Every structure is written in structure tokens, then in C-alpha cells.
């Protein structure tokens, strides 16, 4: 029997889910002999807290609602500094003090290790940020169908929160977002409505280098800029006069139904189509679609740790698997005899080659190939290299690639991961090839979110 009356419960939060929301349960009188269990997901709560929630339709077995009230707060609860935290889906943990976030992330790393039969104590405490704000060098904002420019609403991807600040984005990106937002209102330009597949403005992508001060902006829209020439000219003039760091402004036509920031036609409206950035003392050219580590301050620590764990020598030959544009390859290349970088995206490999050249590095060999095929090719030309490092996507490298690494048989494997769960599963494959897990160092690249990065060392026994 359906019951559409909202009900209010008091619930104790006993765990967090993968998205960082609290989970708890209550027992409801279902009208029969046995009470029925209602599992509740309550965002913006912490483990151990007792909270009050109101559920709109409690007939189902599961429900999700924001807390009405925190009855018994955790000692780790803090006041979220961002005025948009209650609604914005960008950060999930601003209500949690930073040390509490770090401790939880490390506990998760240890849990995944233990779950796969490794000693959890191999994992060290996390390296956090001294100032965990304004750390991102790239943001993708969305234009709302009802107007407004910002990020998606927590738990409701269709709504857009019209932001007037964003505390994790670098300052110039926020200022540029606000200027574009004012421009949209001044010219009364419609945001894109994905249900109706109508409207003009879809996304604003911003990239900013703290090291070089260069700023890139790209607007994704359903129509050509020529069809809106007056408004576009006004935007170029506003942006170029207000942002001295602006070196790249593009208009990307995207008429696809798919909700991704991609371009069918690129119109360069101002400057060039890339920015210069720097990481660990090396120069990089970054295009709008280049994968580049989004927290440069912490990414430099990853590079430092990978170098420290690898202990490479000047006569060594190594593989950088999943090398991207060469963030790890370039610093390593300076320390070894030869480095082979393998990466599936061709434009990233072209970029890696150019980055090596721009930095005066000439002992690299970059292959645009799938990880396994790339390793086979290196094995045929070099035989077994001295070191392999890998930095796969969130899904991990997978059993086939890990077995290939095991058979390759380098003495050391350095694994950089942005997902401790897929990392712990991946490294189980190396056990049967005689590798032991020696070090795991979590590094927080994503404060106020559920994500954590790590660098690990495996050695052949
Ligand atoms: C986490 S990123 C790391 C990039 C680089 N190490 C960095 O720090 O900038 C993972 C990279 O793996 C690449 N990739 C994904 N699947 C792949 C595959 N099957 N073979 C080779 N590379 C792949 C992606 O294109 C991406 O550049």
C-alpha cells in the first residue's frame, strides 16, 4: 500500500558510502508482524552522528534525504566555509575537518589493502595540503537551463547552482566564470536544456596555471559564434581587458545530445589554443582536452615520491605506462638512460613528444598504443627494462595488463593510483610473480572530496 505522507526519523550514521554520504537505517512499522528495515542515505553527515531526516516517500526499502537537524554532531564536524555547500555537488566533505577527512581516506586505503590480503600497515599516513583551498587548475562549469552558471546540484544532475564563488578553484577561474555569467545575463542568452535539446550555452571550461599565470577559457555552445557576433565581441573585449593572464579563448560548437564538453568545430576567438604550465620544474603545453594533474601542488609531491621509490640509476631503462603528456616521464628521463612512455591517446603522445623537446630531453621514446601492445613492443626492442611505473585511470590497469607487467619481470614496479580500490585489486596479480608490497604513500590531491591518490612500491622478492 502506498503511503505518500512524509515521515521523520532519528537515525545514527554508521558508515559512509562511496560518494561520501552517511548511511544508517531505521525500523518501520510496516503494518504486519515484523518491522521493516528502511536504509537511509544522508549526505553531509559523519560516522557516529545522530541526525533527524524527513523522507518524502518512505514506502521503499531505501531513501535519500539531507538532514533536517544534526542532533548529536561528531567532534570532527566543522562549519563549511563555502556559501554553496548545502546545495552544490562539487565538494561533499566541507563539513568535515581536514584532518578527519585525511584519517578516513587512509583508513579506506588500509581497508582495501587488508581486503586483498596485504598488510594494511604498509600504508603511511596521508600527505595533506597545508592550505586545502583554491587547489584546482581546471574547472568545468555548466550553464543552467533556467539561467545561471555554476556546478550541478548535489543529488540532482539536472539542476545547476548559480555560483558566486568556488573555494576549490583558483581565483582567476572564479573571476572569469563570474564575468561570463554577467555577460550571459546582459545579453539574455539561453542556457542549454538537455531534455529539450534546446538553448545556446552549455559549458564554460577554465584552465589556469599558478606557475605561469596563463588562463584558458572555452565556451561550449550549440551554435556558431558568428550567429551571435555582437555578444561574442563584447565578451572578447570584457575578458581581454579584465584578465591580463588570458592567453586562450575558444568557442566550441557542440550540437551532440551527449552531455560532455566536446567540440565539433573549434573557433579560436583570442590568443592561441593552448596554455603553458609547469610541473616539477618542467614546461608543458596544455590544450583544452589535455589530461593534466588537476592539483599541481600535490602532483609535484607524487612525482617526488615516485622518483624516491624508484631509485633509478643513470644506466637504467624504464617504462612509464599510461604516461599521458609525460608528467612523470620528463623528470624520470633526466635520471635514466632511456624512457619509453606508453599511452593510448594519440594527442597526449604528440604532446608528450613536444614537451620532451621543449625541455631539452632526447632520451624518450613515446608510443601511442594500448598498454599491453606497448609493453610487448618495448620487450621486443629492449628486453626486460629495469623499472616500470604505471599511473592508470580510475578503473585500474586490470588483470591482463597486470599479468603482462608480472611477466615483464622488472625488479621494481612503482604504481601511482587515483583509486585505492582498483589499485589493491590490481596488485594482487603481481603476487603470483613474486612481488612484495613495500610502501604505500597516500597523497591528498582532492581535499573535501572522497578521492585520494597514492604512490606505491612493489619489489620482486
Ligand atoms: C591517470 S592518467 C595518468 C596520466 C599521466 N601519468 C599524468 O600524470 O599526467 C591515465 C592515462 O591512461 C591513459 N589510458 C587509458 N587507458 C589506456 C590503455 N588501455 N592503454 C594505455 N593508456 C591508457 C589515459 O589516456 C590517461 O592519459
UniProtKB/TrEMBL annotation:
> What is the E.C. number?
2.1.1.190
User: Domain of life of the organism in this record?
Assistant: Bacteria
- Kindly list the biological process annotations in GO that this record carries: methylation
Q: Which SUPFAM superfamilies match?
A: S-adenosyl-L-methionine-dependent methyltransferases (SSF53335)
Among the Pfam families in the record, one is tRNA_U5-meth_tr
Instruction: List the catalytic residues.
Output: 418
Extract one GO molecular function annotation from the record.
methyltransferase activity
List ligand-binding residues for S-adenosyl-L-methionine. Answer: 293, 322, 343, 391
The UniProt keywords, alphabetically, are: Methyltransferase, S-adenosyl-L-methionine, Transferase
Query: What family does this belong to?
Result: Belongs to the class I-like SAM-binding methyltransferase superfamily. RNA M5U methyltransferase family.
UniProt protein name: 23S rRNA (Uracil(1939)-C(5))-methyltransferase RlmD
Protein's gene: rlmD
Amino acid at each position: 500500500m502506498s503511503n505518500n505522507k512524509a515521515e521523520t526519523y532519528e537515525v545514527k550514521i554508521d558508515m559512509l558510502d562511496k560518494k561520501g554520504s552517511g548511511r544508517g537505517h531505521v525500523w518501520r512499522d510496516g503494518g504486519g508482524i515484523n518491522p521493516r528495515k528502511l536504509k537511509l542515505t544522508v549526505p553531509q553527515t559523519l560516522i557516529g552522528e545522530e541526525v533527524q531526516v524527513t523522507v518524502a516517500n518512505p514506502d521503499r526499502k531505501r531513501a535519500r534525504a539531507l538532514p533536517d537537524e544534526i542532533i548529536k554532531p561528531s567532534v570532527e564536524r566543522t562549519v563549511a566555509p563555502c556559501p554553496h555547500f548545502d546545495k552544490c555537488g562539487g565538494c561533499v566533505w566541507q563539513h568535515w575537518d581536514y584532518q578527519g577527512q585525511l584519517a578516513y581516506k587512509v583508513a579506506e586505503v588500509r581497508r582495501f589493502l587488508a581486503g586483498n590480503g596485504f598488510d594494511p600497515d604498509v600504508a603511511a599516513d596521508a600527505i595533506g595540503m597545508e592550505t586545502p583551498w583554491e587547489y584546482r587548475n581546471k574547472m568545468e562549469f555548466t550553464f543552467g537551463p533556467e539561467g545561471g552558471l555554476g556546478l550541478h546540484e548535489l543529488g540532482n544532475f539536472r539542476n545547476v547552482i548559480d555560483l558566486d564563488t568556488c573555494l576549490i578553484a583558483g581565483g582567476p577561474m572564479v573571476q572569469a566564470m563570474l564575468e561570463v555569467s554577467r555577460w550571459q545575463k546582459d545579453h539574455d542568452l539561453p542556457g542549454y536544456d538537455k531534455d529539450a535539446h534546446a538553448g545556446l550555452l552549455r559549458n564554460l571550461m577554465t584552465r589556469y596555471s599558478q606557475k605561469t599565470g596563463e588562463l584558458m577559457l572555452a565556451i561550449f555552445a550549440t551554435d556558431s559564434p558568428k550567429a551571435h557576433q555582437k555578444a561574442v565581441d563584447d565578451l572578447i573585449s570584457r575578458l581581454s581587458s579584465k584578465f591580463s593572464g588570458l592567453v586562450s579563448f575558444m568557442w566550441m560548437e557542440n550540437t551532440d545530445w551527449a552531455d560532455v564538453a566536446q567540440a565539433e568545430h573549434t573557433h579560436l576567438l583570442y590568443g592561441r589554443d593552448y596554455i603553458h604550465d609547469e610541473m616539477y620544474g618542467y614546461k608543458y603545453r596544455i590544450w583544452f582536452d589535455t589530461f593534466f594533474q588537476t592539483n599541481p601542488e600535490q602532483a609535484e609531491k607524487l612525482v617526488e615520491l615516485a622518483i624516491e621509490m624508484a631509485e633509478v640509476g643513470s644506466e637504467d631503462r624504464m617504462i612509464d605506462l599510461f604516461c599521458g603528456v609525460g608528467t612523470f616521464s620528463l623528470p624520470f628521463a633526466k635520471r635514466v638512460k632511456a624512457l619509453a612512455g606508453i599511452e593510448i591517446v594519440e594527442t597526449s603522445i604528440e604532446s608528450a613528444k613536444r614537451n620532451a623537446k621543449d625541455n631539452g630531453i632526447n632520451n624518450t621514446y613515446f608510443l601511442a598504443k594500448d598498454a599491453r601492445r606497448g609493453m610487448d613492443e618495448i620487450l621486443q626492442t629492449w628486453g626486460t627494462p629495469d623499472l616500470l611505473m604505471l599511473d592508470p585511470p580510475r578503473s585500474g590497469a586490470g588483470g591482463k595488463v597486470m599479468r603482462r607487467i608480472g611477466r615483464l619481470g622488472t625488479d621494481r614496479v612503482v604504481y601511482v593510483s587515483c583509486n585505492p580500490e582498483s589499485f589493491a585489486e590490481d596488485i594482487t596479480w603481481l603476487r603470483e610473480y613474486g612481488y612484495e608490497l613495500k610502501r604505500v604513500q597516500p597523497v591528498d590531491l582532492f581535499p573535501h572530496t572522497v578521492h585520494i591518490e597514492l604512490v606505491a612500491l612493489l619489489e620482486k622478492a
